[in-house]
Amino acid sequence: MTAARSPGSEKDLALYRKAVLCTKPSMSRAAVFRSAAMVVLFTALAAGGCASVAESSEVVEYDGRSVKVDSLRAIKRQLTAAWSADALDAYIEYFGFPHNRATAYAATAVESSAYRLFLLRLWPVERAKIGRVLVVHGYMGHSGHHAALATALLEAGYEVFLLDLPGHGLSSGAPNTIDSFASYSDAVEAAIRRIQSTSATDLPLLAVGHSTGASALLDLVVRRREGASAVCGMVFAAPLVRIRHHRIRSFAARTLLRRPMRLPIALPISSGSIRNPAFRRFVQAGDPLLHPLFDPQWLSALDDWSARVQELPVVTWDGRLLVLQGTSDNVVAWRHNTRILGDLFPDARILLYQRYPHTILNEAPAHLEPVIREILDFLTAQVHS
Questions:
Q1: Above 60 in pLDDT, residue 365?
Q2: Predicted local distance difference test score (pLDDT) of residue 236
Q3: 3-state class of 215 per DSSP?
Q4: Which residues contact 252 (CB under 8 A, 6 or more apart)?
Q5: Which of 115, 161, 242, 267 is close enough to 333 for a disulfide, judged by CB 3.0 to 4.6 Å?
Q6: DSSP single-letter state for residue 263
Q7: CA 236, CA 334: separation in Å to the nearest integer?
Q8: By three-state DSSP, how is residue 28 classified?
Q9: What is the DSSP code (8-state) at residue 164?
């Protein structure tokens, strides 16, 4: 395993080398009470926000763009082989994906167990493609959150696929919950099968996962699913193995919550979750596809999956792994998680980004640029290896 020095500080790297088992410090009674009372809010930050305006506004406006909520609902209603071009155009334009002659796009439904999943495909039409990249979002997120990454990948010559996990975005399923994390990796494998059947298989396939998206990719590998062998390289951004203060949060969720709970629209978001003010405003007021609902079953599923992963030996996989982790991330137990990933993948490259939050892929342009550059350099190395 290699731990890169830049852009993290020497102190950050020293913390990583200590391989701390648990990031939970000794907590005062007041801190325990606050964690228990606010467990829903803390857990919701895994996606960087939870507000949704889809139920209260016919037209959503953000940053000079507007979209009719009905247009987005139409995409979900038409989760079949035949899509409404107008509805898909509205989606592409509103979330900021390239909408020009140099880029083509399409969407399809992917069947996975009991779910019908939204898979968005974008590809460059004026240059040769060098590879394919599957992007998987985090908890309470969706594909629309990764337009900046998709744009950079397209400009570099990649064909890009973005998957909405079960219960997220435009995919089916109860909002923000799952019975087992295996359903997430099942969804990823179903998407990989569709990608392999609809695009040039002579092009290398790579994957980028944020938070729970990284968990889904990790589960694909550790379970030795067929889809894992088709992917030659993966990037885990702020990967989720264990959440921060997982014991108190899990206890609070299991004891205080018995059923799904609607979250407040004006949820405060810490800088350790989101540092970019524009993205903060977006998830709080401009995203009609975010469901303001937390289900404690999701946390139970995470606990079960996390316990199993942490008992695994070194993973046998022919691909290469890059881990990108911010040192100000207050959503995941990043020291613990990077140690676990380093043990599972001894050849992984782990980069620590000083003062970066959980939403490392949604930073402001000046902070996002070095992250994107690192991703592109890694993907290019796998393409030409």
A1: yes
A2: 98
A3: helix
A4: 35, 36, 37, 39
A5: 242
A6: P
A7: 12
A8: coil
A9: P
Tokens of residue 280, six digits: 């903060």
Tell me the backbone φ, ψ of residue 115, rounded to 5 degrees.
-110, 150
64: left (phi over 0), alpha (psi -120 to 50) or beta: left
Name the pLDDT band for 34 (thresholds 50, 70, 90). Answer: very low
Task: Tell me: cis bond preceding 7? Omega within 30 of 0 counts.
Answer: yes
- Cis status of the peptide bond prior to 292, with omega within 30 of 0: no
Q: For residue range 307-333, list pLDDT tens digits in order.
A: 999 999 999 999 999 999 999 999 999
CB 135 within 8 A of CB 161: yes
Angstrom distance (rounded) from CA 194 to CA 234: 18
Residue 251, pLDDT score: 60
One-letter amino acid of 213? G
Q: How far apart are CA 80 and CA 181, in angstroms?
A: 25
CA distances from 263 to 43, 88, 197, 231 (A): 11, 28, 40, 37
- The packing angle between helices 69-77 and 85-95, to 10°, is 120
Q: What domains can you pick out in the chain, each with its CATH number?
A: 2-383 (3.40.50.1820)
d(CA 290, CA 283): 8
Q: Is 247 exposed, middle or buried (0-12, 13-18, 19+ CB in 10 A)?
A: middle
The angle at the Cα of 347, spanning 345 to 350, to the nearest 5 degrees, equals: 85
**pLDDT given for residue 80 in this prediction:** 52
- List the beta strands (DSSP E) in 113-216: 115-124, 131-136, 158-163, 205-210
**C-alpha count within 13 angstroms, C-beta hemisphere, residue 10:** 0
Please state, for a pLDDT cut of 70, what percent of the chain lies above it. 76
CB 251 within 8 A of CB 224: no
Q: For 100-130, what is each residue's pLDDT tens digit? A: 889 999 998 899 988 999 999 999 998 899 9
Please give the Cα distance from 256 to 40 (Å, whole number). 10
Judge whether 22 and 333 are in contact, CB under 8 Å: yes
